[in-house]
Structure formats: C-alpha cells, structure tokens
Amino acid sequence: MNDGRRERTGGSGGSGGGTAGDRRSGVARRGFLRGAALAGAGLAAGGAAAPARPPYAGPGPQPALPGTAAAPVPFHGPHQAAILTPPRRVTAFTAFDVTAESRRDLAELLRTLTARARFLTGGGVPEPLGITGPPADSGILGARLPGGALAVTVGVGASLFDDRFGLCARAPRRLTAMPAFPDDDLQPAWCHGDLSLQLCADDTDTVLHALRDLTRHTRGGLQVRWRLDGFASPPRPTGTPRNLFGFKDGTGNPDPGSARAMRDLVWVGTGTGEPDWAVGGSYQAVRLIRMLVEFWDRVSLTEQERMVGRARESGAPLDGDDEFDTPDYPGDPKGDVIPLDSHIRKADPRTPGTAGQRLLRRAYNYDRGTDSNGNLDMGLLFCCYQQDLARQFETVQRRLAGEPLTDYVTPFGGGYFFALPGVRDETDWYGRALLAQ
Predict the structure, then answer these.
(1) Strand extents, DSSP E, 232-312
(2) What residues contact residue 351 under an 8 Å CB cut-off, 6+ apart?
(3) CB neighbours of residue 246 within 10 Å
(4) For position 87, what pLDDT does the model report?
(5) Contacts of 131 by beta carbon, 8 Å cutoff, 6+ apart
(6) What is the distance between the alpha carbons of residues 42 and 250, in angstroms, rounded to a whole number?
(7) Cis before 237 (ω within 30)
(8) Residue 296: CB atoms within 10 Å
(9) What is the dihedral of CA 10, 14, 15, 18, to 10 degrees?
C-alpha cells in the first residue's frame, strides 16, 4: 500500500525547527507521540466548544464557551494553579537564558517576574511613569487590563544549577538536561534553557501583551533562547479536541480535579528525596514535534486508525463504541482488534504496574506556515507534568519505541524544566525558598 512513506525518501522536506534548512532526508522516523509521550490518546489540547456544541466531557475543569469569561486562575497558592487548568485557546512557550550576574540579581529578577505576573493575571490599570517616561504599557489591551484573562507557569532548567549562582547543591534531584531520544532530530537552538515561561489565554493579544510586558521588565536578566506559539482546537463536534492528524487527543489524561491523583502523579511531595524548597512543584517535559501532515494525509483511514488504536470520528478504542470506553486488552491478547503496536496500547498497557506512569498532558497544536522547501510546517507543542521524569515520561517514551506512528513526525526541540512551587501570598515570590540562604 502506498502510504506516503516511500515518497519521502527522495522528496524535499523541512527540518522540525524550520531554521536549519532541510534535514529530513535519510532520517529514520521514530518517536511520534512517543516523542511527546502522549499516553492514552495523545494530546491534552483542551479548548473551547462552540455555543451550539456540548463542551468537553472529559475529567476535571471544563473550558469556557466562546463569548464567556474563563474562570479566573488563582495566582496565590501552594502550586502554580495554571498547571491544572484546561488549556486555553492560545499559548506562547518561551525558554530563556538567565543573564543575571549574581545570586542577588537572580533573586531580584524573580521578584520582578512575580510582581509582573501577579499584576498581569489580576488585571488593573498600569501605573504611569511620568510625563517624560515611556508609556507604562504597550496599550494593546486598552487602558485597563482584564483580570483572569491570563495564566502563567514558570519553571527552571538544569542549567540554572551550575556554578553561577551557588545553587548546585539545591537542584531538584531528578532534573537533568533533556536527552536526545532514538530518532530525534534535535536542534540546539530549539532546546533547553535556564528558565521556562508559558503564557496561556483565550486571545492572542492577551498572550502577546503579557510576553512584551515580561520581557520588557526582565530585559537585564533574561534573554530569549527560543519561543513557539500554539493554539488549542475546539471539540469537533463534541468531546475531546483533535490534534492535527485529526484524532481526538487527551482522552487518557488523569483527572486534574482529583487531589489524590495529582498528589500521586504530579506534585513533588515530602519524603521523596527532593529538597524542601521543591515541595509543591512539578517536573515539566516539553517536546516540539513536527507532524508530517502531508504524508499522513496519504495514508488510508483504516491504517491510521490501527496505528492510533482508536476510531478517528468517535475517538473510541477500536473494540469500543464511546471515546471513554476502556480497551479490553485481556480479551484481545494477539491484537486482532487493537494492534499490539498501536499507540494507545503501547503508551498505556493498563496493567497494575503502569498506573503510576501516567502524565498530566498540557499540549497545543502549532502552525508556522511553510518551511524553506514549501512544505507545511505544523505540529505539536507538547508539555506534560509529573512527579518523576524517569518513572513517568521516560518510561512511556521507551515503551513507545518503534510504534508505526513514528514514521510521521520529527521531534526537534524542547527541554526538561522544574515548575516552581506556587507563590503563596503577596509577600512571596517565585523561587524564594530556593534562593534562601
């Protein structure tokens, strides 16, 4: 069957990042949603339902309907609350290099970042800087910033714990630089970073306004390393939103509304061997994955569904009728209905031993137009949270090695970060306990 894979060996394609020319020829394709570690059904892209459609029926808080205000995300608390909220319609994920010269400068940088994030998420009128000063704000949202329109998540990378700031002994125990997994095509310019910042909102101008504000106020201590913008698709027609391969994605996510599930799977707790300051934080894995949609679109629907393990229209497992039906793997030991190498079966075998390997996925689609060879440049901005990268993300990653879907994607960037514990009150700031003497 001609599924498009033979055509690629001599065709012209673009690299995942779109900035290093065509690097796809001869590169084996492994790591698709394995590269994203999309356990269950893949993406956790949330999004909003159109008014005439029922909203997303999955677990946890639900996205807002168009034309309605999103529920405010509390800024203060033991955790960064934006981690648990459904994906908004628009995101910008930015990784930074820290250029602050001392530990004191780093502390001041994080205080400033906290103050600006607190104001931007809470809303209000920017304080004027005087007649001779520049405008206090870009003005693209008008004179008064809306409260509750923005969600912010801040993390730190392994490179922040080098010898610059005397933090080596205080590093999260499981935080390393993200390795290159089999058949990745990682581009250094799109990988790693000292600090991660994710901004989410329902409107593009809200995200861009916040990004400009934060970079303006932290210019002396942060330098953008890489940035990728994304969007969350609405449910079509109902249920879980779809990825750019047309399949519903995120069906297998744990319930973010379950305190027990989040305690066991997402948050770093006491007694885990982590530094005391890290309690309440979470490990963040980010993967930038180019989806080779032009080749995927040449594959028969039957083959697509067998690679994923679900029906494209309904999202149901191939042995079920509803999206949230549980696959009956014991009743299909040879994979006659759901193939043994299908994505959902390899990602989550649903055995007692794999229950603790689930991830909280927070992913977005991206579209960057075309590459230098005229090929569509779109894919997945994948982000997930977990208590232990090795036990969860990397274990699922290894299990998914060799799945058929790996022929249709190129992971090209991303990194590991530690999402900091929450800002507890008006006197607290990001990383305060980390930098305490």
Answers:
(1) 282-291
(2) none
(3) 16
(4) 86
(5) none
(6) 5
(7) yes
(8) 19
(9) 170
Mean pLDDT by runs of 10 across the 437 residues of the chain is 40 38 38 37 35 39 47 89 93 98 97 98 91 91 94 98 96 97 93 98 97 96 98 89 92 92 96 94 98 97 98 96 95 97 94 92 95 96 97 93 92 98 98 92
DSSP label of 155: E
pTM for this entry: 0.84
Q: Is the dihedral of CA 75, 78, 256, 399 positive or negative?
A: positive
In the chain, the largest separation of any two C-alpha atoms, in whole Å, equals 75
Which amino acid belongs to residue 240? T
| 3 state SS of 417 | strand
* Cα–Cα separations (whole angstroms), residue 401 to 15, 16, 31, 346, 397: 21, 19, 6, 9, 7
pLDDT at residue 239 in the model: 84
Structure tokens at 73: 């995300």
3-state DSSP assignment of residue 397: helix
> Residue 330 and residue 322: Cα distance in Å, rounded?
19
364-370 vs 360-361, strand pairing mode:
unpaired
